[in-house]
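tool=predict chain=A
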Amino acid sequence: MKELALDDPAREEGLRKLIRSKRLLELWYQGVYARWAKALESAPPEGLSVELGAGAGFSKEWIPGMLRTDSTPYPGVDRVADALAMPWGDGELRALFMLNVLHHLPDARRFLSEACRVLKPGGLLLVTEPHIGWLGRLLYGMGHHEPMDVRAREWGAPVEHALAGANIALAWIVFQRDREQFEREFPQLELLSYEPFAPLQYWISGGLKPWSLLPAFLAPAAASLDGALGRLSPGACCFAHTLLRRRA
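tool=predict ok
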């Protein structure tokens, strides 16, 4: 794939085509969206469902009516939105979703404050991010282009530019390592669950690289085996769904 600027719409279009061309990776995304759709069943019936940082994904195929947003007007994005200064009024959203976005934000506290503001009472926030278990520490530390700092004291990526900075460990830091601090600072958000998943599926698929370690016909079996491994050993999982609810 030709190297393109982070804010070039052609980059996201190319990544979307890449995801759909790799069956194991496509199944990984479908599993994420299926989890989102299931969570949405317990959200308030009225209001908007919004994905922040939608980029190359295809969540709307699984959640009809999803408002797909990003910081740049990519093809397929419904609205440009800043996660740190959202363009919706107080209590306008029934649900807010993010996939691999939180760890790029320069100020997680500001984002969480905004989420509290725009969500209805009972509204849901579902954050899907890297999980720092024993296998994640190894693989993210050795084989990932984005930095991982499990000792970071700040709740934010080090560079104030969308996608230019990152700390892979950020969601784990906020919702696991610093959970007591999170609950003190954001009593409006009830942490309902933190669910690790996917030990090896993403890595074997090659992620957003052009290669994959498995042919397409083996992808369904590999995805099923990976799911079983994740249930057997959560510490081996490399991603996690964090589900939060806005208290009344």
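The mean pLDDT is 93. The longest helix spans residues 23-40.
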